[in-house]
Amino acid sequence: RSMGNHRKVYQAFSDRETEVTGGRARQGVDLFFSGDGSAFGRWTGSLLTRPGLVRYALAPLHHLLPSGDPRQKTLRHYISDYIAGNVLGQKCGAGPRCPHGSYPDPRQPCSCLCRADSYVDRNCCSKMKGLGRLVVTIKEGRDLWGDVFSGTDGYVVVKYGQAQARTRTISNNNNPRWNAKLDLGQVKAESGHKLTIEVWDQDVVKRDDLL
Questions:
Q1: Residue 131 dihedral angles phi and psi, to the nearest 5°
Q2: Strand 163-166 with 209-210, pairing
Q3: Do the Cβ atoms of 105 and 122 come closer than 8 Å?
Q4: Which tens digits make up the pLDDT trace of 140-197?
Q5: Most buried by CB count within 10 Å: which residue of 54, 78, 104, 142?
């Protein structure tokens, strides 16, 4: 259909909304439908230094091979070695202080490994929900009252479910410092279990007293 001044409908109603990601583009310049192609050329050239990310997806390289291909495991191993060998160095001093039961990874000095068993895998991750090693640190006691004519012969008992452990006895001291780590081993977090910490006074003549 013709309109006045020899214009067509598409010329009169040419509003468009264009969203440009990346590159350098001047506001108000039509990159895609302009009669001058130089603006589009300048924009595509600027993408080399100012690229725009539209979408992305990350996947390990060894997934390029089918899951049943025996080479997939080998490729994963060598890629891990390459990453460990070329990663930026981390200063871990003399190595990480790995938790009880683990040891420093010889290939990644800032990481720890575990000996896989029925409870944890090689990366020290629990194989079951709520399962883990329970270690309780007992530091000190203050103003204990165990004996009338002498100081307290104190020790501490820690219980969780059926697991329990105790500190050594510190004799004749109402302010003992145990500084002990009590390892209760592998336990499973259950709603009915409570962590109980008891302080006892040892007595060689009669029964020990719970303070």
A1: -100, 135
A2: unpaired
A3: no
A4: 999 888 777 788 889 999 999 888 999 999 999 999 999 999 998 888 877 678 899 9
A5: 104
The Cα 131–Cα 186 span in angstroms is: 7
Q: What is the residue whose two structure tokens read 């390459």?
A: 82
**Mean pLDDT score, 98-127:** 78
**Average pLDDT over the chain, rounded to an integer:** 79
Q: Which of 49-53, 88-92, 138-142, 177-181 shows the lowest per-residue confidence on average (mean pLDDT)?
A: 88-92
What CATH number belongs to 132-210? 2.60.40.150
DSSP assigned state of 75 = H
Query: CA 157, CA 148: separation in Å to the nearest integer?
Result: 22
Unique residue bearing structure tokens 């603006």: 39
- For 39, 101, 110, 180, the CA distances from 187, given in Å and listed in that order, are 68, 14, 27, 19
